[in-house]
Amino acid sequence: MTDVSTEHQDRIAVVTIHRPPSNFFDFELIRDLADALHGLADSDCRAAVLAAEGRNFCAGANFGSGGAPSERVDSSRQLYREAVRLFQVPIPVVAAVQGAAVGGGLGLACSADFRVTVPGARFHANFAQLGFHQGFGLSATLPRLIGAQRAADMFYSARKVNGEQAVALGLADRLADGADPRPAAIAFATEIAASAPLAVRSMKQTLRGGLAEEVAAATERELSEQARLWATEDCAIGIKANLAREVPEFVGR
């Protein structure tokens, strides 16, 4: 049983995550997303929309599910290998981002070629509030999208960015009205699908051909630092405060 569905609409496809309300991911979900998107490459599909059911796009990994840091490292290593495959999808992908795109969920949104969002969305690289290093290849993707200085700002401060701010930063490409970005994302994908498909695939390969390798290298560094920091007192404080919806008081250990 998978929590990923694919709906075909003319020359586009909508690939949807079904784990509301937070759409937390794990290895299986990222694998199924990569399988679904790669499965479109040999069809007549010319563009895809990556969407999620419920009020949030994706809140990343569920740190409330427990598990020792060593178990977290092993599962994250498998997950990151599947995440790299998202950057190898040959057709353009438009993410429809509503609600929260937090932590690894922000990384998932940044794996798409484009992002359509709404004013009430929340893009949040919350890793420093949790006490550990960013992941899901964001070290490579976020600076590419918004520049190194703005990416450092989002990483170090863990500040939240709404939909309007995301468009202004270049983190999102289009702002839709209301609370549901999916219709606007489908319209965007339909525009892309009207272009010559072989030319679009060729352009994507030129523009993003080396990104998967960059992400693979980034995730190796990210996981190494995450493994070290997951074992710290600050990380325990950050995760505990996050689950209790409290402000953490870090001690630097």
Task: Give your account of this protein's structure.
By secondary structure, the chain is α/β, with parallel strands linked by helices. The protein has a domain at 4-180: 2-enoyl-CoA Hydratase, Chain A, domain 1 (Alpha-Beta Complex). 49% of the residues lie in helices and 15% in strands. The chain is built from 11 helices and 9 strands. The protein has helices at residues 27-39, 69-86, 104-111, 127-130, 138-146, 148-157, 163-169, 182-193, 197-208, 211-230, 233-243; strands spanning 4-9, 12-17, 47-52, 93-97, 100-102, 114-117, 122-124, 160-162, 174-175. The strands form 2 sheets. It has a 6-stranded mixed sheet, sandwiched between helices. The protein has a 3-stranded mixed sheet with strand order 5-7-8. α1 links the parallel β2 and β3. α1 packs parallel to α2 (69-86) and α5 crosses α6. The longest helix has 20 residues, at 211-230. The chain is globular and about 55 Å long. It starts with a strand and ends in a 10-residue tail after the last helix. The mean pLDDT is 96.
Features:
three-stranded mixed sheet; alpha/beta; 49% helix; single chain; 2-enoyl-CoA Hydratase, Chain A, domain 1; globular; 11 helices; 253 residues; six-stranded mixed sheet
